[in-house]
Design brief:
10 helices, single chain, about 220 residues, flat, mainly alpha
Length: about 220
Amino acid sequence: MLTTCVILSPRWSTLAIVGGLLLVASLVVRLPLGVAPRPPMWFVSGFIGGCLGAWLGDGLELFLRVSTLALVVLWGSGLIAWVTPTASLAAALRFFLRPLRLLGAPVDQWSLVMASALRGLPMLRDQAQAVLDTAKLRLGQDMATLSLRGYARLSVDVITAILSATSRGAAETGRAMSMRGAIESQDGATRGARVRLGWVDVAVIAASLLGVAGIVACRLML
């Protein structure tokens, strides 16, 4: 709900309310500072250059608002990934998409695909790291002297190799699951998983509803 409000109405009041809720949630779960990624120097310099260019073009306020919107969306997505076990996301997705069954949506199949995709993320990370290490060994010291065009070609080659290796691994995994009949058993396990709301979930839902109410109130008054 909050993400939808932020995207549909990216005003400063909306960003402030959602950002405040995310800050409170981060403090409540005692999220360590070490889990937050540190932006590289080229990103910081690019942001400063973008601010200067937007200021010269009289678009600094819009540039800062769009940057804040991206930060809030990434912050919320990262917070969900940091505090929620991977195995629980598929069951939670099935729980929240349950009303779409009235429209004939394949909710169980969507949750199964979600669970399989989440289990494949570690494989994707390993494949990407292996391809990057291979590229570094192949180029050696020549990598530091590459031009911008050379980096672009290298990026295309690396991304293509990662997608090829990941697709091959996903096809082999799916073939093995089909031969062992694990798809039906996983589907049954996903259906059998029950999502029970505790007091923490109720508090989060209440805070989200209050945030949405505050966004609507600010929208009507301002």
